[in-house]
Amino acid sequence: MIVHVALPLPLQKTFSYYVPFIWEPFAKPLARVKVPFGNRMLTGFVVGVTEGGDEGLKEIADILDIFPLIGEATFQLCAWACQYYLAPIGLALKYALPSRFKVEKYLSVRAKAEQTRHLDGLTLKAAYTFAGKQTVWEYYRAEMVELYDSFTGSSFAPLEESGITPGYQARLYVANVERRKEEYLRVISETLEQGKNVLFLLPDSHTVGDYFCRFVTQSLGKRVVWYTSSQPKRQMETFFRARAGEGYLILGNKSAVLLPVGQLGLIVVERPEEDEYRNEEAFHFNAVRLAIKSAEMQGMPILLGSVSPPLDLVNLAQQGAVSLTREELFSQTKLSELRVESGKRGHQLPAELVSCIDQAVQENETIAIYTPRRDYASHLYCLECKKPFLCPDCETPLTYHREGDKLACPSCRKSLAYDETCAQCGGSLIQFSATGAEYVEEQLSAALQEPRVLRVTGESIRKKDAHSFLQVAQTPGTIVIGTQILSRLYDLRVKRLILMGQEEFLRVAGYRAHERVFQIFRNLIDALRPEEVLVVADKTSLIGAAQLANEEGFYEEELAKRRQAEFPPYVRLFLIEVEKKTRASGQRVVAEIVERLQAEGLGSRMMGPMLQKRGGLRWRIVLRGDESSVPPVLSWMYGLSGVRMEPDPPSI
DNA sequence: AGCACGCCGACT
DNA sequence: GTCGGCGTGCTC
User: Fold this and answer.
1) Do the domain assignments include residue A142?
2) pLDDT in tens, A461-491
3) Domain span at residue A314?
4) Which residue, A88, A181, A228, A414, has most beta carbons within 10 Å?
């Protein structure tokens, strides 16, 4: 017997191996097998079985699963994801099981016959060492033993899926966090009462995740389980409960979307616009896209909640593919804006702003200031030789950190001392721009009398716990200065919120800049629930108080622009990156790609190639596909050495 | 992806 | 003469 195996490598092809007679009954599609590959051992998934003898093939080294652990629905979803994201099936299937996966440790044997009495109660692992793996598996096949997992105690068997039910319905709920919580809890409870499981996707585990976990646990208690790779044992428990149990609420982030779940009845997604749903390593996917497809394929409802949904979802709503409910976000919020002179970035905080903050501090208010960057300044520029400060190793622009008076390279993490002179010409007229939280803190310290400032960044939250921050932040008279992380702290409430630095997004976020600013600002208001919001903007800024308040109008306008420019969600973008050490080898591959694209009639849908010097040499080509399908040429490109393909890149 | 192999230019 | 970087091809 021969099995065809999909390996977790960026290769589209499968590899065939011979299966010795004794293992034949277990070599079924989707079982995991250990195989020799070159000079290493890899674990892959059986994707096909054919009759035949050892025709010079290598033998499989081991079979890991007594029966396949992945059900049909999960497999179909992986298969769909692979064609949509141009990934090999072996990589996708790997994501469907817990990262550090040890079944034998958590499964135990229950004897069902006199001859197997001696194995009763042993873990599967112990039973293997005692009686041999082959013997135990034969007992299982002869129904002389059964298996149960140590968490639920219930019998371990192939996954029973609900099959396709006619209940697909995608619903986008645009409302503030209090209303979303009510709505989530209502639909979740309804589904759990029917004895079905619910999958609840959250963008992270430590802020938004933790908040919703505490909320749902209040009313659902032990029905709530977490699926997270940072706690392997807990992840294993959830894995078993998801397949055996009934009526569990499974919380998880992006990788939970591929978890095999029995009797899944509903999917909920909190804040589908968050970037954390994008998987960047090995196999690129967006968990929200997969969640919608999963609900559609299995015929179940999906509820997506946010105050600032991603544009593609709003587009689907306009087409009638998703139903949309909107609620007012600003009934208790006063919005205003402060227009400042443009072109003077990074010199001084506007005087009006300083006096506004000063007044708030005098009145003992809680106040939060948002700025997109955490450091002091992200760009340094020598006014004498007119050159930016670049990393001597990799030529990436250096950032400046006040703490320690250091220059740092964001790309290679090199750290350099800063001596207030230009490394190129020795000049001392240095301009700082793209300033961040450290800078704002310094400016306020200079302008106000002993201000109480708390700087909050993603990193500082990860080091301490969020709760200890909140205690300080809640103290009246405190000025909280923070980056995007502030939009995740639902437990922090402020009287006044100041939104600065949106110009920075025009530089880094490309075509999504306005969408991102809109989402971050609205999510900050959603999380912090301020009574007053002040948008600091210059003449180039697109998001003012009016845009923030008029959500429907903003989306309409932004979608019109995207349609006009032929950008997502009306087309799909594919970023093709060629990385080589020498110019000649790179140009050869790039020329081959360009030629092939032109031959396929895609020349006019191609942008680039553009050459970038970052360490080695990097060429980038962007291809516009149509809304849903993937141009077939791309699968040819996949697997060329030094060529990377990124579907739906966040910026280009 | 990871690895072996073969090609070149550089250097004690 | 040989060491090391780089490109190419292969893995059942």
Assistant:
1) no
2) 776 676 777 777 778 888 899 999 999 999 8
3) 169-326
4) A88
Q: For the segment A106-141, what is each residue's pLDDT rounded down to a tens digit?
A: 999 999 999 999 999 999 999 999 999 999 999 999
Cα–Cα distances in angstroms (integers) from residue A535 to residues A275, A331, A515, A521, A582, in the given order: 23, 18, 16, 9, 48
| Domain end position, chosen among A416, A431, A446 | A431
**Residue A196 has which token pair?**
């079905």
Which nucleotide shows the minimum CA-to-C1' distance to residue A9? B1
Contact A440, A349 (CB under 8 A): yes
State the CATH number of the domain containing residue A202: 3.40.50.300
Query: Does residue A643 sit in the same domain as residue A603?
Result: yes
Bases of chain B with protein Cβ within 7 A = 1-4
For residue A434, CA distances in Å to A288, A371, A379, A399 come to 32, 10, 6, 9
Q: Do residue A238 and residue A350 come from a single domain?
A: no
Which nucleotide lies nearest residue A10, CA to C1'? Answer: B1
Per-residue pLDDT at A343 = 55
CA A281 → C1' C8, Å?
25
Residue A592, class by beta-carbon neighbours within 10 Å (0-12 exposed, 13-18 middle, 19+ buried)?
A: middle
Q: Would you give the DSSP letter of residue A158?
A: S
A555 is a domain residue? yes
For residue A108, being part of any structural domain is answered with no
> Is the C-beta atom of A281 closer than 7 angstroms to strand B?
no
Q: Report the Cα A45 to chain-centroid distance in Å.
A: 25
In A114-248, DSSP assigns E strands to 145-149, 169-174, 197-201, 224-227
Q: Are residues A303 and A178 in the same domain?
A: yes
Q: Which residues touch strand C (CB under 7 A)?
A: A 11, 13, 15-17, 36-38, 57-58, 580-582, 585-586, 588-589, 641-642
C2 C1' – A412 CA distance, angstroms? Answer: 33
CA distance linking residue A234 with residue A244, whole number of Å: 15
Are A540 and A606 members of one domain? no
Last residue of a domain, one of A431, A452, A476: A431
Residue A216, φ and ψ in degrees, nearest 5: -70, -30
pLDDT of residue A42: 96
- In a shared domain, residues A397 and A489: no
Q: Give the number of domains in chain A.
A: 5
A283: left (phi over 0), alpha (psi -120 to 50) or beta: beta
